[in-house]
Amino acid sequence: QVQLVESGGGLVQAGGSLRLACAASGRTFSNYAMGWFRQAPGKEREFVAAISRKGGTIYYADSVKGRFIIARDNAKNTVFLQMNSLKPEDTAVYYCAASSGVVTTIKGAYDYWGQGTQVTVSS
């Protein structure tokens, strides 16, 4: 089992920044590809960003490319999502997830999920 706990969400004005963190415990963190997903009210959970086990491969959704940065610190068992130039449409609950397979944008490939952290961007 892998336990994931997100933090860093909050309320921010459009154009602002937030940095999310996801702390992992339970298994060897570096054995897992990590992803961030988000879910807005009334919408499906959607892919945001993903990073491979050693950080060499990274994917972003088109909607966040150039604004968000995913990174991981395997020594601290933590994955981060730096969110810049935030827009009201970025408002959602953000979830981190761990995959025992290769890094992927596919939600169903992730084995473990955190509880989520709310991000609200005001206009």
Descriptive overview:
With 123 residues, the chain is mostly beta strands. Helices cover 0% and strands 50% of the residues. The protein has strands at residues 3-7, 10-13, 18-25, 33-39, 46-51, 58-60, 68-73, 78-83, 92-99, 112-113, 117-122. The strands form two sheets. Strands 2, 4, 5, 6, 9, 10 and 11 form a seven-stranded mixed β-sheet that branches. The protein has a four-stranded antiparallel β-sheet with strand order 1-3-8-7, with no helix packed on it.
The strand count comes to 11
Gyration radius over CA: 13 Å
Please bin the fraction of helical residues. under 10%
What overall geometry do the principal axes of the alpha carbons give? Answer: globular
Which band does the percent of strand residues land in? over 45%
Report mean pLDDT, rounded to a whole number: 97
Secondary-structure element order, as H and E? EEEEEEEEEEE
Largest sheet: 7 strands, mixed
Helix count equals: 0
Structural class: mainly beta
* Uncertain parts: none
How far apart the termini lie comes to: 40 Å
